[in-house]
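Illustration 12: Acetylxylan esterase.
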Amino acid sequence: MNRRWGRALGGLLLALLMAAYAGPGTAGATEAATGRIPSVGTAWDQPGPYEVAVDIEVVHTFYHPKNMGQRGELHPVVIWGNGTGAVPGIYSSLLRHWASHGFIVAAANTPTSNFAISMRAGIDVLEQRNADSSSPFYRKVDLEHIGSAGHSQGGAAAVNAALDPRVDTAVPIQPGPLTDPDLMDEPVFYLAGQRDLTVWPALVKALFRDSSHVPAVYGEVRGAGHLSSIGDGGDFRAPTTAWLRFWLMGDENARGTFFGPGCGSCTDSELWSGWDRNTRALQIPGPTA
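Figure caption equivalent — predicted structure in token form:
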């Protein structure tokens, strides 16, 4: 649905959106698709239960559970964009970490990811392989739950990729400026670094403020510079894993990290030097128990 048309519906649309955002982990499509992916409790920073395989191809590098669908489960997708001049290998430990939690990560090999063309093409490839009986991905990809993520230029690309209606949430890590949040309509988790001198936190906060039409959360990682998220993701690893598990797996253990009056991140001053949630994020219910 076109968001400009949706805005004209005013309060009615808001009510519908909040109903949809309130419970990604409730019984129904999400549970049927991903309910068998094992829980990790709240150990977001620890490796998940899956052994990981990596397929390096011309356009993409795929990080995924080695034995996909071993419990009859489907695996949600994360499409990834690199920073300027970077390749997926620079972020390999972080992308492996997500794959160990049950995600299929389609990382675009391009060092210029800003327009998210190769990122979105990763979804196309997985759609084809999910339908190909000769592929190890056959009927194992959860194409109903897709997130976009990236760092720096790739962070801007994560927002740009979310223009694709197949994308359900975005995780821009220290995103560059060449993007327009007004064009996306998915929940978004903006991450900044307190000591980032390349993408200043104020620039990321401006993107957050421009996202008032969707549930948006802003986290500024204490002491982090622009390169702190490469490798294994550093202090960015746990919160991004929790966010992706909540929105794409319906993992209710992660709800209280972000939502509700007593959200865990709201008071975690050791991790965050800055934390904010917009009005729509504040309307998402916290844990029920």
